[in-house]
Amino acid sequence: xxxxxxxxxxxxxxxxxxxxxxxxxxxxxxxxxxxxxxxxxxxxxxxxxxxxxxxxxxxxxxxxxxxxxxxxxxxxxxxxxxxxxxxxxxxxxxxxxxxxxxxxxxxxxxxxxxxxxxxxxxxxxxxxxxxxxxxxxxxxxxxxxxxxxxxxxxxxxxxxxxxxxxxxxxxxxxxxxxxxxxxxxxxxxxxxxxxxxxxxxxxxxxxxxxxxxxxxxxxxxxxxxxxxxxxxxxxxxxxxxxxxxxxxxxxxxxxxxxxxxxxxxxxxxxxxxxxxxxxxxxxxxxxxxxxxxxxxxxxxxxxxxxxxxxxxxxxxxxxxxxxx
Length: 324
What we know:
- The chain is mostly helical and 324 residues long.
- It has a single domain, classed as NCX, central ion-binding region (A middle domain of Talin 1), CATH 1.20.1420.30.
- The protein has helices spanning 2-34, 39-51, 53-64, 68-93, 101-120, 128-151, 156-163, 171-203, 207-219, 221-232, 236-259, 268-284, 301-323; strands at 96-97, 125-126, 264-265, 291-292, 295-296, 298-299.
- Strands 1-6 form a two-stranded antiparallel ribbon. It has a two-stranded antiparallel sheet with strand order 2-3. A two-stranded antiparallel sheet has the order 4-5.
């Protein structure tokens, strides 16, 4: 009965996080429109940060409830899921290629931040100084992205991102959705972390493992839903942009901000198992951002299938190495 209750808590938490993130983005985007913020800025900041809200609220809750290892696992596992699961499933449906110059400039930043994260946790944890460095990097990245976007002309990713900005709504309704969405995110994160932590204790695995798998999968669901919606419209630049942007914000925001308020342990196994997997998957994306001899490089369906198999194999490896 206890396992069943914890499973329900996890499921309810996931549903609240997905639903709450959508309502929060709708409300925040509409309020930004009413303040005269351009749809380009909204698409690159408000919408992007809103889709990372589930991961952030989960990590804040994990810190506050005494399971900080789950926070680190959530980010690393979410980034692995974004590349292996989200991009893998999307490429199975629609072969992906990158036409956007903005995304070509963002990929080296993602690779650099992934390497930096690995260097920061070589001592086994993220501390206040690390959080401050990531927060400063977030400010610099946001300013650089907006400047690059304003100078770009007819960029496919930017056009697709602007098209995805929610429609305006009355101010009262916008505030209502914003507050309701935030409440759903808070309740969902609490439910998910409580249920996941209890399940970890019952089945005998660490909070890190639950964060890498169950929690990471759940908090990646908004990105999966957004990517499948973009696939349906054949907006492959938006699919890739969602993955790159989510992975960057996970490192800079979802880990950076909680680290300002408390130490986040990484765990020894993350150094030899999880971070190397994340780095390899990030490197695998490299050719997607380069021009091949015959034009743009594409992630075809078989390569998308390979990414998905790699993700499933990784999840199996995590549980197998824990059991061993």
